[in-house]
Amino acid sequence: VQLVESGGGFVQPGGSLRLSCAASGFTFKSYIMRWYRQAPGKEREAVAIILSDGSITTYVDSVKGRFTISRDNAKSTVYLQMNSLKPEDTAVYYCNTRLDGRDYWGQGTQVTVSS
User: Fold this and answer.
1) Cα–Cα distances in Å, from 115 out to 9, 12, 82, 90, 107?
2) Using one digit for the tens of pLDDT, what is the confidence trace for 17-52?
3) For residue 103, what are the β-bridge partners?
4) Are 3 and 108 in contact (CB under 8 A)?
């Protein structure tokens, strides 16, 4: 299983970024995918979840209405569109899946929101 995130960077408050996570080594279309983030000195938190067919998505309250998770099963890729970014969104963002009770993580991509 391999998960490779991309798309992070530096953005001013109010800006947007789109994260991507390319997956391989498993049947992507059959699994729930998640985005997590971890800010300095804080625990890793789940940000968004999407079911295998994309029919249902859920978000942590702090990003509702600003972030959108989506997936392209043909490309084995999950996305996180982040709009109206705030300084408190600064973190390393990770994609995640769980197979047979084991969590798999990408290497993470840094998102920094600052003026």
Assistant:
1) 13, 5, 17, 12, 26
2) 999 999 999 999 999 999 999 999 999 999 999 999
3) 98
4) no
